[in-house]
Specification:
The complex is a heterotetramer, with two copies of chain A (418 residues) and two copies of chain B (155 residues). Chain A has 418 residues and is of the alpha/beta class. Chain A has 15 helices and 17 strands. Chain A has two domains: 145 residues, Alpha-Beta Complex (Aspartate Aminotransferase, domain 1), CATH 3.90.1150.10; 256 residues, Aspartate Aminotransferase, domain 2 (3-Layer(aba) Sandwich), CATH 3.40.640.10. Chain A has a seven-stranded mixed beta sheet, with helices on both faces. A four-stranded antiparallel beta sheet of chain A has the order 13-14-17-16, covered by helices on one side. In chain A, strand 5, helix 5 and strand 6 form a beta-alpha-beta unit. Chain A is globular and about 70 Å long. The N and C termini of chain B lie far apart (31 Å). Chain B has one domain: Sufe protein. Chain: A (Alpha-Beta Complex). Chain B has a four-stranded mixed beta sheet. Chain B is 42% helix and 18% strand. Classes of the chains: A alpha/beta (418), B alpha+beta (155). At the C-D interface, helix 13 and helix 15 of C face loops of D. The structure holds pyridoxal-5'-phosphate (2 copies).
């Protein structure tokens, strides 16, 4: 299979060595080798992450922040080290700029409450885009309906790129309080020009949030270079455990925002009459946090950083190039999204085959792809694919041979439904 | 490559999926419902025309969905025509059992022929996430009969 | 050590066999065997839970609800089986009555938003008690301040029991919309008479929520027998993973309540203008849920059910009886809480030794206890222990020998600070 | 049983913990702050009286907390009396380093005697969750000097 040296010269990206780290890739399903092309929904976990979680539970587990005893100190240190790792991963100025949540969805809901309801005024507007995941759409609808903000939707071009002229129009009246857009589409793979968007938002007096659920997995993110106010990602897509998400929020905003959830560990002092909040980020982390998950996420970050985000990006770019060179030869296949700057995700449809039927066939061949609308119903309407599409998404363990196999299976499926 | 899927996608399913019968609006319908499977984006609209005596004179549907859900709706409209409302409900129950388990040991007497006709869909029971595709039409039938105008959902 | 047959005749509660299931109990800390008396903050994890989580990640992991392929179907079935296990565990009528959250704190915040803001009217009141954990206090303060509800605090008696006469008074004017009280205090161990409280609440036209974070670990809970409207617990205290909590909510209430968090998987249909919600419980579970954690929690429930909640309760009762017979012999020791019905948790203080100093000493002896106010600051003021206490809490792996060792260490600590 | 804890709880610590010096209100103070460690419930109030020339004429505190935090506050008030504000800040920085690492290689010349006096608290560095107990008094000092009236927190 491919690996070792590839045309772009990432000689040290040895995909077979990487695959050996993922126990699930060695499993068979109904007698077929697993070809997992659904990493965009959730990625598989390397041995390094699994082992770290085991070790924590077997030797170093206790609740954090609450105990003065040795085991709790150890657990607290590990939890805080995970925060520092996330800060490094995003190049956030300080560990305290990182808030742990349960997933990206919760991170965005937190911003919708603590910044949206807490700081924005009714009548101000939130700008999202046509290609947002429901996680970055529904919270803003709920804010609109509950708080009286306006919701503006920035168009995308037919190539699947953010329409920056439209964005400029939407920002022109100065009423926008927040631009909340994806950093990479989970359907089209399009990467948005984050630095430019942030500059446009800031010039119009708005803050900016990037949904980095996909982007952070596929390329190096630098929140300071982008000048992001908020940036989120989710652990389970970054080869880490479920149950943990990450929100970067600029220190001054964390200070200004009221908390979202109430409970233990987020207060400085409590009486029945009055409560004062702890300092950020504790203020935003109510209750027992995802301790084992934070430690697992730390291991996942160490894992991808050891491989190197640039190497991962190059590997996935090579995969996308290969897919775009190979798949169009399959008769009757439509591929969605033609953005210049794109990551290892794309949606597709086959004439005469409904996405759901197609995914059942591919599954029979051992290929896991998603079918449906991938939590982007409005985008699918926009694409004229309201009935749904299939989506393939690559991970660092994906090979060109797997893409060739997908092409073969698609050609065969076409004959099946002919 | 997919020969072992011929159990699920029998020729009759592919045929009904490609060319669903009774795929039209019913202008003189007496009952109507929408059905929705949010997960896959399947949507259908079902019309029934009942006779004075409570039997189903006509049934028709429109919508979009996978081969399984289109074929199931197509076969359903064919099967319930001429049946009493009680029998239509009974068929729905039995069909759901068939779709979930692959067999229907409790299938009441008197509807054997109708169940025979629906049997090609029994292969779906091996595909848990596809069972809903097959049962959506029947959920929608229930909601048209019970509860005029309310949306059905197979979720 | 104790085990095998004990005076109460739970012949089959073999504590040594149970201890062998918990890898961490075999570890040493600074040369001392671990004596873990902080299970009330978070319990240790048995091999059965750890192994289930490993197996999931190694052989059966994918995102749930979103894929038609085999692996995703397997993961979805496992996630839904965990929901069914939680329903059985609480004797909820149906699996769908269970909502997964990230912890108890989130479960209570969900109720404060979806029921509190969603259904309650400004001017209505929430009744809590003096012995609530901050998780069941701060969300109601935030509701008061944001929604205009009143917050009423039911007194406890000097024995540490809920003052039912006072509860009756607080309910008398019919303005109470919700009684939200603990089912077992995390400081005093007091178990509250849930069935009676629910009856009183319902007769006054109020709904009732029980914070079962402690209770569900220590005895069998039956939400139908209690007639609870809401009941929550948290995975990590029940020998399960962090990152998952459970909310039982009566079906009719789930139907009536608006959702709390917005995102994927909780919608039926989305356009930019308007969103319709999925059926409960999906409506309340936005985003990728804690999949690995749900499977781990399922294993934890299987584990405690195999031992049997009645056996666990009897074991812990024997431990408490032993502690109450032994520890008062330590000179200068105060034990807080004297409720008739109590579980395996108690707070204590030693004359002349601040709780923090005491816990550092005990830690040196290998004993893990918590020091502080255990997220119950108002209760500590009520107890005249505003500076904090130490707390010992038992798990199913706790032995009488460990309690004897605690008594010895306390006597020694007293000499140290004399 | 706890002999190896004598490094942390040296006799001077236990003594200052039991009988803290300068434990009183300062009626004629010029500076004041509250300090709070929410985790353990430690609370303290600190008063300073500064001379015209900016040296610290008097320092006193009240509050509740563990032996470490009481002893640290007691030693701190003794140590800063007569010092300039700049020296007090410098002592605070050096003390925090001592508490966190157990040594203070960068300790500036000129304050050796004062650091010597604070040395008994250096054992705290082996107890990460107790470092805050030792530094709370110095955080409170900073906030009294910098920022009249604002609460300090060692969180
Ligand atoms: C009685 C009680 N309620 C609520 C909680 C909060 O649980 P969690 O931190 O898991 O949300 C706890 C434990 O910390 C508790 O003991
Ligand atoms: C772009 C994007 N945003 C948000 C999410 C939501 O992530 P989660 O479900 O982990 O909250 C996803 C993935 O589902 C995504 O692809």
């Amino acid at each position: 299979m491919d690996g070792a040296v590839n045309p772009r010269g990432e000689a040290d990206f040895d995909v077979e060595r990487i695959r050996a780290d993922f126990p699930i890739l060695a499993t068979e399903h109904r007698g077929k080798k697993l070809v997992f092309l659904d990493s965009g929904a959730s990625a598989q976990k390397p041995r390094q992450v699994i082992d770290t979680m085991i070790r924590t539970m077997e030797t170093a587990y206790a609740n954090v922040h609450r105990g003065a005893y040795h085991l709790s100190e150890t657990a607290t240190a590990a939890y805080e080290a995970a925060r520092a790792a996330c800060a490094r991963f995003l190049n956030a100025p300080r560990p305290e700029d990182i808030i742990f949540t349960s997933n990206s969805t919760m991170a965005i809901n937190l911003v919708a409450h603590s910044y949206g309801r807490g700081i924005m005024k009714p009548g101000q507007a939130v700008v999202i885009s046509e290609m947002e995941h429901h996680a970055n759409l529904v919270p803003w609808q709920m804010l609109r309906d509950g708080h009286g903000t306006e919701l503006r939707v920035c168009r995308i071009t037919d190539a699947g790129e953010l329409d920056l002229n439209h964005l400029a129009e939407l920002l022109a009246d100065g009423k926008v309080g927040l631009v909340a857009v994806t950093h990479m589409s989970n359907v089209l793979g399009s990467v948005t020009p984050a630095t430019l968007i942030a500059r446009m938002a800031h010039e119009a007096g708005a803050k900016v949030l990037f949904d980095g659920s996909q982007a952070a997995v596929h390329r190096r993110v630098d929140v300071q270079a982008i000048d992001a106010d908020f940036y989120c990602f989710t652990g389970h897509k970054l080869y880490g455990p479920t149950g943990i998400g990450v929100l970067y929020a600029r220190a001054a905003l964390q200070k200004a925002m009221p908390p979202f959830l109430g409970g233990g560990d987020m207060i400085a002092s409590v009486t029945f009459e009055r409560t004062t909040w702890a300092e950020p980020p504790a203020k935003f982390e109510a209750g027992t946090p995802p301790i084992i998950e934070a430690v697992g996420l730390h291991a996942a970050i160490d894992y991808v950083e050891a491989i190197g985000l640039p190497a991962i990006e190059a590997h996935e770019r090579a995969l996308v190039d290969h897919a775009m060179a190979t798949l169009p030869h399959v008769e009757g296949l439509t591929i969605y999204g033609k953005a210049q700057d794109r990551g290892g995700v794309f949606a597709f449809a086959l004439d005469n085959a409904h996405a759901h039927d197609l995914s059942t066939l591919l599954d029979r061949a051992g290929i896991a792809v998603r079918a449906g609308r991938h939590c982007t119903e409005p985008l699918h309407e926009r694409l004229g694919a309201g009935a749904g599409t299939c989506r393939a998404s690559f991970g660092l363990y994906t090979t060109k041979a797997e893409i060739d196999y997908l092409a073969e299976a698609l050609a065969s499926a076409r004959r099946f439904f002919a | 490559m997919f020969d072992d899927l011929r159990d699920l996608y029998q020729e009759v399913i592919l045929d009904h999926g490609r060319k669903p019968r009774n795929f039209r609006r019913l202008e003189n319908g007496t009952h109507h419902a929408r059905g929705d499977n949010p997960l896959c984006g399947d949507k259908m609209e079902l019309w029934l025309a009942l006779n004075e005596d409570g039997t189903i004179a006509d049934a028709a549907f429109q919508g979009r969905g996978c081969a399984i859900s289109m074929a199931s709706a197509s076969l359903m409209t064919e099967t319930v025509k001429g049946k009493s409302v009680a029998d239509a409900h009974k068929l729905g129950e039995q069909f759901r059992e068939l779709a979930m388990t692959g067999t229907c040991p409790h299938c009441a007497a008197g509807l054997e022929d109708e169940m025979e006709r629906l049997a090609p869909l029994s292969g779906v029971h091996e595909f848990p996430s596809r069972v809903k595709c097959a049962t959506l039409a029947w959920h929608t039938l229930n909601s048209a009969l019970d509860n005029q105008g309310k949306e059905a959902s197979s979720e």
